[in-house]
Known about the structure:
This protein has ten helices and 20 strands. It is α+β, with helices and mostly antiparallel strands.
Amino acid sequence: MASSASISPALVTELSDVASQVVELCRKAGADAAEVLVRDGNELTAKVRLGEPELVQEAGSRALGLRVFKDGRRAVTYTSDLRTRSLESFAAETVALAELAEPDELNRLPDADELATDLPELDLYDDAVADVDAAWALRQCIAGEKAAMAHDARVTNSEGATWSRTLGAVAFANSAGFAGGYRGSYASYYVEPICDEPDPTNPKKRNGYWWTASRFLAELQDPEAVGVEAARRTVATLGSRKIPTGEVAVVFDPEVGRSLVGTLFGVANGSAFWRKSTYLLGREGTPVASELVTIVDDPLLPRGPGSRPFDGDGLATRKNVVVERGVLGPVLCDVYSARKLGRKSTGSAGRGIGGNPGPTTSNLIMQPGDVSRADLIRQTGRGLYVTSMMGFGFNPVTGDFSRGASGFWIEGGELTFPVSEITISLNFDDLLKRIDLVGNDLELRSSTAAPTFRVSSMMVAGSSE
C-alpha cells in the first residue's frame, strides 16, 4: 500500500492558524464576535461487482464556515477559497450580511469560562488507513465478494463489495479565546450478496449484507469473514413469508436496535424541547423506558467512531447520561438551545461547515445487559426477531411508531423461518417501557450502537389468516 493522502499534525496547526486569522479579519470588519470552523479531508471509495471494478473514486476538499455576530444579529456563511485576499472580502461580506438579519438576544458566543481549555488525546487517527491506495482496496473488495459467492451455491448474484475510507482535519477558533483542532480517520467495508428464491412461482430476489468499520485498519474484520457473514445472512432470508397479524414479543437485532436509540435522541434534545416538538416534553427526571435501559452519550471514548475533544461551540465534551435505568436525564443541548431552555450546554453541539450549531450525539450507546443473544432468543418462546426495518413511521409529538420490517419467526426459543412484508407498531413510549431483556453483544462499529434487546409485546401486522 502507498498513498499520499495522509493528514499530518502540521495540517491541523495550519488550519488552526487560518481559523484564528479569519476571526481577526471579522473583528477588523466590525463584527462584535466571530467563530470559524475549517475542515480539510479526503475520501477513497472502491467498489467491485462480480469480480470486476465498478468504481474507484478519490476526492479531497477544504472549506471554511464562518459565523459572525453584530448587534445581536447573526450571519452564517462558508467558502472553499482560503486565499488571504479572498478571506478578507469574505469576512467583510459576512459582517454586512449579519447587519441585515433579525436580532436575537441569544445570538452570541459562549461565555469565555464555558470554553474548553484542555483537549484530551483520543487516538482518532490511524496512519495505516491513510496508507491504503485504490489497488489494495479493490483487492479487499474482490476477496470479500468472492468469499460470499463461494460460501453457498444459492448466492447467484451480487450488488458488490465496497471499501471506503475518510481522513480529515478539523480546526475551530472564536473571538472569545478558543482555538483547537484534531484529525481523524475512519474505514468501512461492505458486502451485499443476492440470492434467487428457488420456487419458480416466486421470482423474488433476496439480498442481505454485512459490514465492518473502525477508525483503525487493524480492527476491521477480514474481507473473507465479512463476505461469508453477508452470504449467510442473505441465504437465511430465502423462503420469507408473512405471518398472521397479532401481538407478540419482538426482539431487535443490534443493526436495527441502534436506529431506535437514534430515534430516542430525536425527541430527547434541547432543540426538540424548546420547539415543543417532542412527546417527552416535561419528562426529564421521570421514567421513560424500562429499568433495563441505560443510554449514554460519550464523546471521550478512545478510538470511538463519534469521539471528539471539543464540540461545535468550542466547549469541552463530556459523557452525558441520556437515560439511566429508564429515567430520562437532562436532554443534550448546544449553547443556543440551552439558553432557550434557561440552562447550560451539555457540550453536545454539532455543526456543519455551512450551518449553525445544534444538539447532536457523539457515541450514543445503549448499555449492554448480561444475557447472551442465544439465551435471549431461547427465553423468547414465540415472537419475531427483527433484522431490518423500512420506511419511517414515527410522530415525535405523539410517539406513534409504525415501521415495515423483516426478520425471523421465533418458535420454541429458536429462529425458525424468515419473515417479510410485515409492519410492527406500538407507541414509542410503550416500546421503551416494555423492553424486558437486554443482550450483552454490544459492538461499537458506528457512532450509535445497541445490543440485542426484546420488547415484551408489539402489534405485528402481516396476513389476515
